[in-house]
């Protein structure tokens, strides 16, 4: 198979092989999973965990033991694949603590002799995501008191950590911009800096935040440069707004990307 040029490589990142499962196969899997209301077992299996797992359900259901109706958003526990309400699962005495405060969650979990992780199926991301935990009320109260006692200390530590991460990000951007200029001598330094800042943004999930990107891998940097060229130097965004499929749009502007890459490969 011939090597792909940089203009076509990124397009294939979006080409996932289609599943050969039929709708009949998926329906059979659903029949084998009585608690289908926790998510879509044909897409994401029920998560396995050493901890107790409680589901925030995405469809109305019913407790198999007491026949209580469980509305969408209610908590449900699976026992041998049978859906149970929290009362029948002996978990109704626990208090729900939403995610968001890691210190409070960690301490409440430590002080609670019985606790459970609450998850919910995300249709858009096709996976289960943590929503919070169930802990005893006394454990939550103790955790809240501890958090209040050292709130100032934790705030100072968080500020120092944020400053350290910001400096690490600035250093990464500088090193990445220099590496891009070495790889593409014709790329204007300010544009290389813009590319580095964009692809290395913390929490973005872009190629610059991958292990390869942070290691300044040439292929990863090339992908970041190609992506920037596509958006900043071609009609790619315009084509998407006109309804083009991503792959068709990328093929349409491939020569433009190649032309800019060829220009940037030579020092000015």
Task: Please outline what is shown here.
With 268 residues, the protein is α+β, with helices and mostly antiparallel strands.
Describe it:
By secondary structure, the chain is α+β, with helices and mostly antiparallel strands. It has 2 domains: 20-149, no CATH class; 156-264, no CATH class. It is elongated, with a radius of gyration of 25 Å. Strand 4 and strand 5 form a beta hairpin. It starts with 22 loop residues before the first helix and ends with a helix. It has helices at residues 23-31, 102-111, 137-149, 151-183, 189-199, 211-214, 218-232, 236-241, 246-252, 254-264; strands at residues 52-56, 61-62, 69-70, 75-79, 82-84, 95-98, 116-122, 127-135. The strands form 2 sheets. The protein has a 6-stranded mixed beta sheet. Strands 2-3 form a two-stranded antiparallel ribbon.
Low-pLDDT segments: 1-35
Number of continuous helical runs: 10
- How many domains? The number is 2
Shape label: elongated
Strand tally: 8
Strands across the major sheet, in which order? 5-4-1-7-8-6
* Secondary-structure content class: alpha+beta
* Average pLDDT rating: 84
Walk me through the topology.
Layout: H1 23-31, E1 52-56, E2 61-62, E3 69-70, E4 75-79, E5 82-84, E6 95-98, H2 102-111, E7 116-122, E8 127-135, H3 137-149, H4 151-183, H5 189-199, H6 211-214, H7 218-232, H8 236-241, H9 246-252, H10 254-264
Parallel strand pairs: 1-7
Antiparallel strand pairs: 1-4, 2-3, 4-5, 6-8, 7-8
Helix pairs in contact: 2-3, 4-5, 4-7
């Amino acid at each position: 198979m011939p090597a792909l040029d940089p203009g076509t490589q990124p397009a294939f990142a979006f080409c996932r092989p289609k599943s050969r499962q039929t709708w009949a196969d998926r329906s059979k899997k659903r029949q084998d999973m009585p608690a289908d209301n926790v998510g879509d077992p044909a897409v994401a299996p029920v998560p396995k965990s050493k901890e107790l797992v409680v589901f925030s359900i995405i469809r109305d259901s019913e407790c198999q033991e007491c026949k209580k109706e469980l509305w969408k958003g209610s908590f449900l526990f699976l026992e041998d694949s049978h859906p149970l309400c929290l009362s029948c699962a002996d978990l109704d005495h626990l208090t729900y603590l939403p995610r968001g405060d890691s210190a409070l969650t960690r301490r409440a979990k430590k002080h609670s002799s019985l606790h459970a992780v609450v998850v919910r199926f995300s249709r858009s991301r096709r996976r289960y995501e943590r929503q919070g935990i169930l802990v005893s009320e006394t454990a939550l109260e103790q955790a809240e008191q501890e958090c209040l006692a050292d709130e100032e200390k934790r705030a100072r530590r968080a500020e120092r950590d944020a400053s350290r991460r910001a400096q690490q990000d600035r250093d990464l951007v500088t090193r990445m911009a220099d590496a891009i200029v070495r790889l593409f001598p014709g790329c204007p330094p300010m544009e290389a800096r813009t590319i580095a800042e964009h692809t290395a943004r913390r929490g973005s999930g872009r190629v610059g935040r991958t292990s390869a990107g942070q290691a300044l891998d040439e292929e990863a940097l090339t992908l970041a440069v190609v992506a920037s060229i596509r958006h900043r130097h071609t009609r790619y965004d315009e084509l998407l707004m006109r309804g083009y499929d991503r792959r068709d749009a990328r093929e349409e502007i491939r020569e433009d990307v190649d032309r800019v890459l060829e220009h940037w490969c030579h020092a000015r």
